[in-house]
Specification:
The protein is mostly helical. Helix content is 60%, strand content 0%. Helix 2 packs across helix 4, helix 3 crosses helix 4 and helix 7 crosses helix 8. The longest helix has 31 residues.
């Protein structure tokens, strides 16, 4: 794999507003989603911990961001603010969890904590993870490839990409976080497609597909007000 530093697009600056980031995601550039995670993750995770406890906080937080990504890729926008949309997603998902737990079940929130082989034939999770990986910017794919598949450390990755070590570490952290959320978003799309009789994992990571099916008829595309 080529490891030269790419200059096709600069990462968004920390001063970019949520609206700027949303515009970037909706233009097809997932770089815009990184600052949204950096800006809102700690507060949303704290709220999830207060609401559901530490054992569910990570799952609820990741799925809230996954629902946000689906909303943005489908052309919608949070009706009030990104933070409010994420908080509301937490509450709705926790209510679903409580209902399912009361009936002896537990909803599955996908995770990529354990590596999934990209080339496992017919493996649905593998297909969705590979599709999410292909949609990342070139330098994000490079840094994940070098770390995960070639097993390089921070120093080696920085040298290979011509970056400072701190920048390489930051890039890896952001790429990993967005890949995880994109993979969860693909699962949410697949669940929605199944409810409509279409379960093709190959179209689970981009816009234009089915939205996220919210319990009680709530849909992020409908509840998130579109802006002109």
């Amino acid at each position: 794999m080529t490891t030269a530093k790419t200059d096709d697009a600069a990462p968004p600056c920390s001063s970019a507003t949520d609206r700027d980031c949303i515009d970037q995601v909706q233009a097809g550039d997932l770089r815009g989603f990184g600052p949204l995670i950096d800006r809102h993750h700690s507060q949303v995770h704290a709220a999830a911990t207060t609401l559901a406890g530490r054992h569910l906080a990570v799952e609820l937080t990741d799925e809230a961001f996954g629902r946000l990504l689906v909303l943005l890729q489908d052309g919608g926008r949070p009706g009030t603010s990104v933070r409010y949309f994420l908080y509301r997603s937490l509450r709705e998902r926790y209510r679903q969890h409580q209902k399912q737990a009361a009936h002896g079940g537990r909803p599955r929130v996908p995770s990529i904590a354990s590596p999934i082989p990209f080339d496992a034939p017919g493996h649905q999770d593998s297909q969705m993870l590979a599709a999410a990986y292909r949609n990342l910017p070139d330098d994000w794919r490079q840094v994940l490839w070098l770390r995960t598949l070639e097993g390089l450390g921070d120093r080696e990755i920085a040298e290979a990409l011509g970056l400072e070590r701190a920048e390489s570490r930051r890039l890896c952290h952001t790429a990993d976080a967005v890949l995880r959320i994109a993979y969860i978003a693909a699962h949410l799309r697949l669940d929605a497609d199944r409810s409509h009789g279409d379960a093709d994992p190959s179209r689970g990571t981009g816009g234009g597909g089915g939205g996220v099916a919210y319990e009680g008829g709530s849909d992020p595309r409908r509840d998130g007000a579109r802006e002109p």
